Amino acid sequence: MTDTPAPTPAPVPAPVKERPRLAYHHSEGTGPTIVFLSGYGSDMAGTKAVTLEAWAKSQGRAFLRFDYGGCGQSEGAFEDQTLVDWRDDTIAMLEALGNGPAVLVGSSLGGWLMLLVAKLRPDLVAALIGIAPAPDFTDWGFTPEEKLTLLSAGRLERPNSYGPQPTVYTRAFWSSGEANRLMFGWIEVTCPVRLLQGQRDTEVPWLRTTRLADLLRSADVQTLLVKDGDHRLSRDSDIALIIRAVEDVIAPL
Questions:
Q1: Are 108 and 204 in contact (CB under 8 A)?
Q2: What pairing do the DSSP bridges indicate for beta strands 155-158 and 102-107?
Q3: How far apart are CA 225 and CA 209, in angstroms?
Q4: Which top CATH class is 24-139+183-250?
Q5: Three-class SS string for the chain?
Q6: 226: which of 31, 150, 153, 212 is 20 to 30 A away, CA to CA?
Q7: pLDDT (tens digit, 0 to 9) for every residue of the chain, 253 residues total?
Q8: Could you give the CA distance from residue 194 to residue 249 in angstroms, rounded to a whole number?
Q9: 105 vs 38: CA distance, rounded Å
Q10: In this structure, are strands 167-170 and 221-226 parallel, antiparallel, or unpaired?
Q11: Which residue(s) pair with 65 in the sheet?
Q12: Quick one: CA torsion of 100, 105, 108, 109, rounded to 10 degrees?
């Protein structure tokens, strides 16, 4: 008599990570929807987001701004979030409110997120506008000493140029960023892309943005360098350039 082999157990599906509920402002209008993606530690109430929303409303265009999990008015603890979490927040918002391929306007970290979304879910993206985009900043944006602090202590604080509270980075966020770097070869993004970069930006070196333009697979890429522009690019003249870039990519859609 032979033993009957035990059946192989079916794999158990990995649990879906529950995300915080997200705060957002959505304006109805004609498409494609324009979606603003904030920078690291910022929120949807920034000057660029609110001013761009006002312009979109004046043109009767659909617009969406929102806070990532742990940011602004959204639920969740900031220090529990990772780059992939915020990418997934963006995808969830596009699926729920994008109403088809959208124009993503990403500022700094938002520029990294827009690229990750366009690469993973090109069906959700019609065009990209990067404002001082910061892909891979977990690599080039930290000194070796800061990286050691993140790895050993799990947390790093830096002075915040835009407010009294320090900017906090965690080992989890840094590790997520390192696992999702893009600028090591061709970036498989084929939609129209416009990049705006200040040459007096002390946070994102402007040469990184010109290198990003080279690496994008899309043939429809334009880079605008603002010689006296800083990282924020939030002056009236800067925002006028952002609006012009949005108009440029929307026109043929």
A1: yes
A2: unpaired
A3: 9
A4: alpha beta
A5: CCCCCCCCCCCCCCCCCCCCCCCEEEECCEEEEEEEECCCCCCCCCHHHHHHHHHHHHCCEEEEEECCCCCCCCCCCHHHCCHHHHHHHHHHHHHHHCCCCEEEEEECHHHHHHHHHHHHCHHHEEEEEEECCCCCHHHHCCCHHHHHHHHHHCEEEECCCCCCCCEEEEHHHHHHHHCCCCCCCCECCCCCEEEEEECCCCCCCHHHHHHHHHHECCCCEEEEEECCCCCCCCCHHHHHHHHHHHHHHHCCC
A6: 31
A7: 344 344 434 444 444 568 999 999 999 999 899 999 999 999 999 999 999 999 999 999 999 999 999 999 999 999 999 999 999 999 999 999 999 999 999 999 999 999 999 999 999 999 999 999 999 999 999 999 999 999 999 999 999 877 788 999 999 999 999 999 999 999 999 999 999 999 999 999 999 999 999 999 999 999 999 999 999 999 999 999 999 999 999 999 8
A8: 8
A9: 9
A10: unpaired
A11: 25, 36
A12: -10
Place of tokens 């312009």: 55
Sign of CA dihedral 224, 230, 231, 234: negative
- Name the token pair of 78: 């900031």
Question: Model confidence over 148-205: pLDDT tens digits?
Answer: 999 999 999 999 877 788 999 999 999 999 999 999 999 999 999 999 999 999 999 9
Tell me which residues are annotated as active site. Answer: 108, 201, 231
- What six digits make up the tokens of 81? 């979030």
CA dihedral defined by 51, 20, 95, 83, rounded to 10 degrees?
Answer: 80
